[in-house]
Amino acid sequence: MRVSRRTIKKRRKEFRTDYVLRKKLLESNTPRIVIRKTNKYFIIQVVESSEAQDRVIMTTISKELLKNGWDEKYRGSLKSISAGYLTGLLVAKKLKKGKFIVDLGIARKIHGSRIYAVVKGLIDGGVDIVANEKIFPSDERLKGEHLKSEVKEMIIKAIGKIK
Fold first, then answer.
1. Model's pTM, two decimal places?
2. Phi (first) and psi of residue 161, to 5 degrees
3. I need a labelling partner for 128 at 20 to 30 A (CA). Which of 32, 41, 48, 93 fits?
4. How many Å apart are CA 71 and CA 80, to the nearest integer?
5. Distances in whole angstroms, Cα of residue 120 to Cα of each of 9, 64, 137, 156
6. Strands (E), the chain
7. Is residue 4 situated within a structural domain?
8. Quick one: which of 161, 146, 163, 149 has its CA closest to 82?
9. What is the CA radius of gyration of the chain?
10. In this structure, what CATH number is given to the domain that contains residue 77?
């Protein structure tokens, strides 16, 4: 009996690239919005691919919210659900209209999570993305209804400033 041995690519072993998903994204010939969450921020990039070569068109980091009404004393929360939603709105404001695919990478896909708050912000900002409404966090969580009143007011002001 012969055992088939297949070499596993280095980036797959390190849980950094899902090659099957990447191939599907590249075959679609549609620009994609890449969303990554670090320990401090959200990083959102608009990427076009040509012959498996990626070209970054635009990059936005949630740190830019500090210029758009986010209070400095809440700096540590630049990766919260509300910050993700506002970052998505900020990217949608910068983007020209068009159809995009969302690339979440190997991040865990949990309904109502911070990653999906970014996607909701993109959609509310006018970007054409196909998504199911069930995956998004509730509007109360997006607008900070569960937080202290001063934080909630800051989020509402930031939403008004970005829109």
1. 0.82
2. -70, -35
3. 41
4. 14
5. 33, 18, 8, 16
6. 32-37, 42-50, 53-61, 101-103
7. no
8. 146
9. 18
10. 3.30.420.100
Q: Which domain holds residue 132?
A: 12-162
What are the tokens at 123?
Answer: 């959609």
- Any domain includes 99: yes
Tell me the pLDDT of the chain (163 aa) as tens digits.
Answer: 566 666 667 766 666 677 777 777 777 888 889 999 988 899 999 998 887 788 999 999 999 988 888 877 766 688 888 899 999 999 999 997 788 988 887 777 788 888 999 999 999 999 999 888 899 998 888 888 877 788 888 888 888 888 7
The pair phi, psi for residue 160, each rounded to 5°, is: -65, -35
Total count of domains within the chain: 1
Cβ 93 vs Cβ 64: under 8 Å: no
